[in-house]
Amino acid sequence: MASVLVAIIFIPLYTLFMAGNRTFNTGVDRAEIQQNARVALQSMSQEIRMAGYESPGLANPACPSPKAAACVLPTQLASKVGLRGDVDGDGMTEEVEYELQNCVNQICNLVRRERDWADATSTWGAWSAYETIAGNIEGLTVTYLPALTPSRVRVQVNVREPNSGPDVAYMVVSDMVLRNL
Asked: Which residues contact 28 (CB under 8 A, 6 or more apart)?
């Protein structure tokens, strides 16, 4: 009799505990992918807004004035963006590229690489190794507005966490004005 009563009490409690645990894990997954999307977009947005920037008193030899969008954004693809400017404020012009790599089942890493302008030789240096910015990226869409001579860039990042419970997806979008043209 005692075993039956224990089973009647503990089985519903165990079921309730497991449901709460699943709900908690889904919430953690959602928070993680939202954070991935925010990190990816924040990193890209800061540098895209800096495209074409020149340190005060220092001409940008890689993109002489007047600057054109084609020089400031040398890579204008729907799934990859490249930009030039002093994005880190060190007085040296960098070229930076963002793209998706290492995809498994359509889930990728957003990666970044850069190279510096060598004033002495008036050429670009070697590309750095790819640095992973964010994971679980399902899609990266870059739109250049207007298309032929962009003055704005819209970036959309889609993230998905397919491995734990129900698929959890999230999307963030940002419009950036190229203020250094």
From this structure: none
Nearest-CA neighbor of 82 among 40, 44, 27? 44
DSSP secondary-structure letter at 7? Answer: H
Q: Report how far apart, in Å, the C-alpha atoms of 139 and of each of 17, 45, 64, 161, 171 are.
A: 35, 16, 34, 13, 9
Sign for the CA dihedral angle at 46, 49, 52, 57 comes to negative
Which one, of 96, 125, 124, 123, lies nearest residue 111 by Cα? Answer: 96
| Exposed e or buried b per residue across 120-145, where buried means at least 16 C-beta atoms within 10 angstroms of its C-beta | eeeeeeeeeeeeebbbbbbbbebebe
Query: Residue 176, Cβ neighbours under 10 Å: how many?
Result: 18
Amino acid of residue 42: Q
Q: State yes or no: pLDDT of 117 exceeds 60.
A: yes
CA distance 140 to 44: 11
Place of tokens 């060598």: 118
What does the pLDDT read at residue 96?
A: 94
- The Cα–Cα gap between 103 and 5 comes to 52
Q: How confident is the model at residue 8 (pLDDT cuts 50, 70, 90)?
A: confident
**Residue 115: beta bridge partners?**
95
**Residue found by looking up tokens 């869409």 in the block:** 141
